[in-house]
Specification:
alpha/beta; Aspartate Aminotransferase, domain 2; 2 domains; seven-stranded mixed β-sheet; two-stranded antiparallel ribbon; PyrdxlP-dep_Trfase; dTDP-4-amino-4,6-dideoxygalactose transaminase
Amino acid sequence: MSLSDETLTPIGGYFELELPNRVGFPFAEANRFQSARAAFLALLRAGRPKRVWMPRYICDSMLAPLEQEGITYLWYELDDQLLVDENCEIENSDWLLYVNYFGICDVNVAALLKRFPPDQLVLDYSQAFFSTPAENALATVYSPRKFFGVPDGGLLMSQISISAPEIRDTGSFDRTPHLLKRLGESPEAGYPFYQTAEESLGLCEPQRMSQLTEIILSSIDFDYAGKKRLQNFRYLHKKLGKLNAIAVDPLQASGPLCYPFATQDSALRNRLLTARIFVATYWHEAVDRVTEEWAESMIMNLLPLPIDQRYGPADMERIISIITGEH
């Protein structure tokens, strides 16, 4: 027996990072990739649509697979309810991709499945990890790292048979410094490493999800995470709903990504940052594709307030106090 035989389960030696095995892997039947965009690329290669309709309000990362495969994409507009514009009509050989924005668009998805042939719809659930995939849709794509402390990963549920990539992603370890620095130091210390990790996922050639990410995902208490997100979302909406410039229905949220808060107060983002409350900008690269009004209301002045499982009522009150000025 060779001492380097990696087919044998190791016994003894130094300890690995200890993680509890809680509930097993989420969406166990899904295809597992290194990222959502890689999953989308694998879907495109398997299905070979003639054209794909894309919302203007989307990140460039989901356009890269289309450009890599030379597949034509066309833009459609969204209305103020984040519904597909009524003038959008697709042909039999087309696909349409719809984003479940902020994880609060389940009702919109249900309407979309009635309006268009489900087998032509690709649902981007990168912001809606806790939303159940529509069984009759062509495909649903998930991005766990937007919800949990994992270095990478993408999940794909599809009506099309897709073979798992032969190569497994081994880049996860290079994408862990920001996770460890935030755990042991601070968000500020880890941020440059976070940016580097995100850039490394720009290459979307499909690979199998890394073993590290699979193990971490298998250790997470998803029920707890989903409930905490929903509680925090509803707490913020109760206090801020009347101040929110966009309509939000808390009954349509199921473990949402964030609380989308639109404001005319252009200085609010900096006040939150000064108070070490970090909010992203979704999606700055889309500014030139959307109308000036949309860019202002849904990109520049939309604040995706944190509501994730790390936080509770006291944290939500801290956010509220900055927004309302009631310290």
